[in-house]
Amino acid sequence: MGESDSAPTGLCGTDLIIDGWFHERGELWPGQAMSLKINKVLDHHRSKYQDVLVFESEKHGNVLVLDGVIQVTERDEFSYQEMIAHIPLFAHPDPKRVLVIGGGDGGVLREIARHSGVEEIVICELDQGVIDVSKKYLPSLAKGYDDPRVTVHVMDGAVFMEQNQNYFDVIITDSSDPIGPANVLFETPFYKAMHSALREGGIVCTQGECMWLHVDLIQPLVKSIGSIYTSVGYAYTTIPTYPSGQIGFIIGTKGRGECSTPSRNPTPEVQKELRYYTPELHKASFVLPAFARRAIFEDAV
């Protein structure tokens, strides 16, 4: 995931290590925590923007933590990376140009690269430090950078989009939680900027927080961008090491209908490589529990 500032005030990654366990305690999920047993700390430093911690865990492989919040574990990252990438990409009939905002670990790039018809993949990551530690300690994700179609810009994604209007078929924002530097990614002006950078028929897919914890964040955002995008949907995936084991995606379209049914399916060869996404799961991910559907959509009209 992208830049973050979600740790309790004054805490860095190593402050959250107690008796050989890392304890994630974020202010967006009060009263609960996620703990992973550590084999060894691989890297801990302060980048220009955030506290960066990488450790080898006992059961989840290497783990990337930004400002005290788990971003990636090698054990379960595929469920997030595949769904945030393949829902919009397979919903689009013929995506050629794809922009990733955030996503410095490279996992989204890896998944986009499976689409042979994509001609141009651009990533805007604010923090070079995230890219560097991911290439060193998370090579199974960072191999996405090796694709020759990838161009890397270490800069603010909003500035880049302003410079590239009406250009991309799909924009994927792989952000962390809406506190600190990442909070602008959860505001209406950022969604307007994405809309302007989309070509007609384009799709945006953004990290959309947890339905169990954050409908108070999701609902007003969905309502506010409903007047900008032709359609707005919410899908979700399960992932054990994110708060409450679930995270959602806000999906908006420009000049086309909703995205709950794929326009294309993976080839048999690609499907064999995927560990989570299927066309059936694509459709099912938009089917929300009654409480979430009411809270996000029925109260948003």
Keywords:
301 residues, Spermidine Synthase, Chain: A, domain 2, Rossmann fold, 2 domains, 7-stranded mixed beta sheet, 6-stranded antiparallel beta sheet, 28% helix
Our count of domains comes out at: 2
What fold name goes in the CATH topology slot of the largest domain?
Rossmann fold
Structural class label:
alpha/beta
Order of helices and strands: EEEEEEHEHEHHEHEHEHEEHHH
Largest sheet: 7 strands, mixed
Side-by-side strand order of the widest sheet: 9-8-7-10-11-13-12
Number of E-state strands:
13
Taking Cα atoms only, what radius of gyration do you get, to the nearest Å?
A: 18 Å
Instruction: Name the shape in a single word.
Output: globular
Total of helices: 10
CATH architecture verdict of the largest domain: 3-Layer(aba) Sandwich
Q: State the end-to-end CA separation.
A: 31 Å
Protein name: Polyamine aminopropyltransferase
Organism: Seminavis robusta
Family: Belongs to the spermidine/spermine synthase family.
InterPro entries: PABS (IPR030374), PABS_CS (IPR030373), SAM-dependent_MTases_sf (IPR029063), Spermi_synthase (IPR001045), Spermidine_synt_N (IPR035246), Spermidine_synt_N_sf (IPR037163)
